[in-house]
Amino acid sequence: EEEMPARIEEVKHAKEEGVEFLTLHNPIEYIADEQGCVKQVILQKMELGEPDASGRRSPVAIPGATETIDIDLAIVSVGVSPNPIVPSSIKGLELGRKGTIAVNDNMESSIPMIYAGGDIVRGGATVILAMGDGRKAAAAMNEQLKTNAGN
């Protein structure tokens, strides 16, 4: 964890939010069930390589070392700024003035059952705010699914 490219307070806050870190693992494949829902992820185990010119050690794959874990949801987050292709490619999606996705207090977009959070809503922000958005969206999704199921 000490080698993670994050501020100490970000890691601390993430743990307070219930985030469990699985360091030095890289997802390489998602496995779906018969209905097409994700059920497992295969992770490539990594180790820290030699330091580069700046002294930073980058992860390097350990050949043949993988781990498969059961999951029921995969959220992929890449980069530190919103991808403009996503909001511009979905018809009817309301955008903010900076091209970010507009959402309500539950992180739901102008299209029912499409939720967004983090940089795609806020622009560049902290991972803590993104995690909070994700938690809020997940709670709203859960309530919506229970309502739709009649529970």
UniProtKB/TrEMBL annotation:
Domain of life: Bacteria
A Gene Ontology molecular function term of the record: oxidoreductase activity
Transmembrane segments: none
Domain FAD/NAD(P)-binding: start-end pairs: 11-134
InterPro entries: FAD/NAD-bd_sf, FAD/NAD-binding_dom
Name this protein carries in UniProt: Bifunctional dihydroorotate dehydrogenase B NAD binding subunit/NADPH-dependent glutamate synthase
Lineage: Bacteria, Pseudomonadati, Bacteroidota, Bacteroidia, Bacteroidales
